[in-house]
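Following up on my earlier thread - several people asked me to post the actual chain instead of describing it. Fair enough. Here it is, all 240 residues.
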Amino acid sequence: MPYNPQRRTAIICWVITALFIFAIFAPSIFGMDGMNGGFAVSFLSLVAAITSLVVAIMYQGRAGALDRILKGENLLAHWKYSLAEWQSYAEKEYATEKREKRNLFYLVAVISLVVGVGFTIAQPDSGWVVLWVLGGLVVLIAFVAFSTTRYNYWMNKKYRGEAYITPDGVYLNRMLHLWRGWGASLEDVSYNESEKFLAFQYSTPNRNGRSDYTLRVPVPAGKEEEARQVLASFQKEGNI
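Reply from S.P.:
Thanks for posting it. Predicted structure:
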């Protein structure tokens, strides 16, 4: 069976969880006085252990899901790409992702500027603090947008693509996209005949609502009819 990178991540998370659990009791084991930082170490380790445990369980589930995908369970399509096909996809995807994130950054920057200037005018004494905080947020968003876009492009350049499509998710070029479990939901599936790609729109929960994602899966030459069949399977009642 092909390599499962989610399994390695799950193992790392379990090891980190075990280390934090040990750290909870470390002050007592090594005779560290509670009033001299022992209680703080135990409390922070407890919080970190709970957090890492949740993450470990999540990645354990993702690893199991990817195992099933790689074994071919409920597989709708398994595509491999020529070098030319994948290079073309990588460049187009990079340009599209840059454009989408640049537009989002401009929107956030303008809103932050308007709000920050408004606070500064309304509250001259403290409004500048809000302006600086919002400015820092804009810089952080710019960094995240740039780094994630470059990382995705780097992954696409490093590995020649391979796609596994199932009703529960897609494994594309060592990146796992799931829309079943943990509150995730598949919103729409479409097939772009001219650009030759399947688009999967799905969402996942976050602290402020839901995050929306669009995954574009290129269709290899000669697989157009299979792509239509994949689309038809998702369009059946109850699938989307």
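Residues 77-235 form one domain. That should answer part of your original question.
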